[in-house]
Design goal:
The complex is a heterodimer of chains A (283) and B (231).
Chain A (H helix, E strand, L loop, with lengths): L2 E12 L2 E12 L3 E5 L6 H8 L7 E6 L9 H4 L2 E4 L11 H11 L7 H7 L15 H13 L5 E5 L7 H16 L3 E6 L2 H7 L2 E6 L2 E6 L1 H7 L5 E6 L4 E5 L4 H10 L3 E7 L3 H9 L6
Parallel strand pairs in A: 3-7, 3-8, 5-6, 6-7
Antiparallel strand pairs in A: 1-2, 1-4, 8-9, 10-11, 10-12
Chain B lengths: L2 H16 L1 H20 L9 H28 L2 H7 L4 H26 L4 H28 L3 H22 L3 H7 L3 H10 L7 H25 L4
Classes of the chains: A alpha/beta (283), B mainly alpha (231).
Chain lengths: 283, 231
């Protein structure tokens, strides 16, 4: 079986409100899937369902061939999770936080040192969590998620609210995990992050998947509205619709040696999301 | 003992040393007992007065507030969800906390017993009474922690319960009306027991203690079933 995650016609209600509606989605082993959507789209709810923290209302889903509702001890050891609210023990040190999770898994502490070194927290191993910066806490939560060397890694907005340097560091670590063969299920509201990292993305809006596929393929699919953007030497910017007729005009600019730069502007995921849902991709 | 319970015990030990609020609960009454027993000597004061009084306050306060605070904090900080993802069952979590909190309180009680001059069988009886009190108090605290969404709610429910359990036995010694009501509470009956260690337990005391224990277990089970830590 080549699928790590299978979701079939999955729906979930909070009271009367349908937060996830008839979702169909699958993730291949070793694939990095990005689930994109604005706040309240249902991303975290789906992670809670897939990790067995929440019982879904309708449909079916399975993780490595097993329903999340039937997961037992060894099944949990196959998954790592980094939640948006981290769940770290604030008064304990970085090292002790990881040691505690190793103890819960009945393992020894030999994995802790390489993992802490990998996320750049070995020097801060004795520091209490309450004294760490947000970026360091996120890196520690990531370290805890990969400590088990899981087969599936769930990352719930791992770079939300972080500075660009830490974001780059976390992206690097995510890619390293992917190269190790880990299946990664990433939720984010950052389009650039998903374009950079993901093999496939699913755009989620109001609990429904409105688009699914490879980020570049999706952009190409919506490329019928492509534009040509010319920046002239006099500082003027001109945008043309991509039609046969405009080439004569552009040719004139070139003959008169007025063109500084020229490039085509393809739609990005943000534009596509707006076109599909009529709403901005705000957080 | 499972790996999970061992790990939770280890975690609580590491955490409590740095958690001043809980640490104070554990050491305050033993320290007060040592201080008062060694500094205040009033003529005609009943034997073991401070030890018995503070011991009952200790049993009504420390396990209850500690259990409430620990569980409510885990819920609020979302660490409970992470434990769930490590396949820690709710009963393992509660047993781990119960062993830890009750053991620490028993050490405190032992110090108080020795300070009060108890020895041999009397000390054993004193410790048994304290153990019973700590168990009741822990279960009440755990139920409050489970039913509270955050630490703020837990404190606002836990403090009045803790004050009733801790202070009614003391207040009842000054007021007969209060005594009429307080005798139905386990802490008052435990206070009667520690003040009469040489005498046999009366039917009334036995009956009230059993009823209290059963009611607390029922309350805990109902709360646990309705709010379940796993949900």
């Amino acid at each position: 079986m080549n699928k790590a995650i299978i979701i079939k016609d999955l729906s979930h209600f909070f009271g009367e409100v349908e937060v996830l509606s008839h979702l169909d989605l699958s993730v291949d082993k070793g694939e990095l899937l990005g689930l994109l959507g604005p706040s309240g789209a249902g991303k975290t709810t789906l992670i809670h369902i897939l990790t067995g923290q929440l019982k879904f209302t309708k449909g079916n889903c399975c993780i490595l061939g097993k329903s999340p509702l039937n997961m037992a001890g060894e099944d949990y050891k196959q998954i790592g999770i980094m939640m948006d609210n981290l769940g770290l023990y604030e008064r304990m040190s970085c090292y002790d936080n990881l040691k505690f999770y190793q103890m819960l898994d009945g393992k020894r502490k030999e994995n802790i040192e390489p993992v802490l070194k990998k996320v750049g927290l070995w020097e801060a191993r004795k520091t209490q969590i309450m004294h760490l910066s947000k970026g360091m806490k996120n890196r520690l939560a990531f370290a805890r998620a990969i400590l088990r060397q899981p087969k599936i890694l769930f990352l719930d907005e791992p770079t939300s609210g972080l500075d660009p340097t830490t974001v780059t560091a976390i992206h690097q670590m995510i890619l390293e995990e992917k190269h190790r063969g880990t299946t990664i299920f990433l939720t984010t509201h950052n389009m650039h992050e998903s374009e950079k990292l993901c093999d496939k993305i699913a755009l989620l809006n109001n609990g429904k998947i409105v688009e699914y596929g490879n980020p570049n393929d999706i952009c190409r699919r919506y490329n019928y509205k492509k534009k040509i953007n010319i920046h002239l030497k006099n500082g003027q910017d001109i945008v043309f619709d991509h039609t046969r007729e405009i080439w004569e005009v552009i040719k004139t600019y070139f003959i008169n040696d007025e063109v500084e730069t020229i490039h085509s502007t393809e739609p990005n995921l943000e534009n596509i999301f707006m076109e599909l849902t009529g709403r901005k991709f705000d957080i | 003992m499972t790996n999970h319970i061992k790990a939770i015990l280890w975690k609580q030990l590491k955490d409590t040393i740095k958690n001043k609020n809980i640490f104070i609960q554990f050491v305050m009454f033993p320290c007060l007992t040592i201080l008062m027993e060694n500094t205040i000597h009033i003529e005609n004061m009943p034997e073991h007065f401070f030890t018995n009084l503070f011991a009952i306050m200790y049993t009504g306060m420390a396990p209850l507030t500690s259990a409430t605070a620990v569980i409510a904090e885990e819920k609020e900080k979302n660490t409970l969800c992470v434990l769930q993802l490590c396949n820690v069952k709710a009963f393992e979590y509660l047993i781990g906390n119960a062993i830890y909190i009750i053991s620490i309180c028993m050490i405190g009680s032992f110090v108080m017993g020795l300070t009060g001059g108890y020895a041999g069988t009397a000390l054993l009886k004193f410790m048994l009474i304290m153990f019973l009190g700590h168990c009741c108090s822990f279960l009440l605290g755990a139920a409050i922690g489970v039913m509270s969404k955050n630490q703020m709610t837990a404190t606002s429910i836990g403090v009045p319960v803790m004050m009733i359990l801790s202070f009614l036995p003391m207040l009842s010694t000054f007021n007969e009306t209060i005594k009429k009501f307080s005798k139905f509470i386990f802490s008052e009956q435990l206070y009667i027991l520690v003040n009469n260690l040489t005498e046999n337990i009366t039917t009334e005391t036995g009956f009230i203690l059993t009823c209290n224990f059963v009611l607390i277990i029922i309350f805990f089970l109902i709360t646990y079933k309705n709010v379940s830590l796993e949900s």
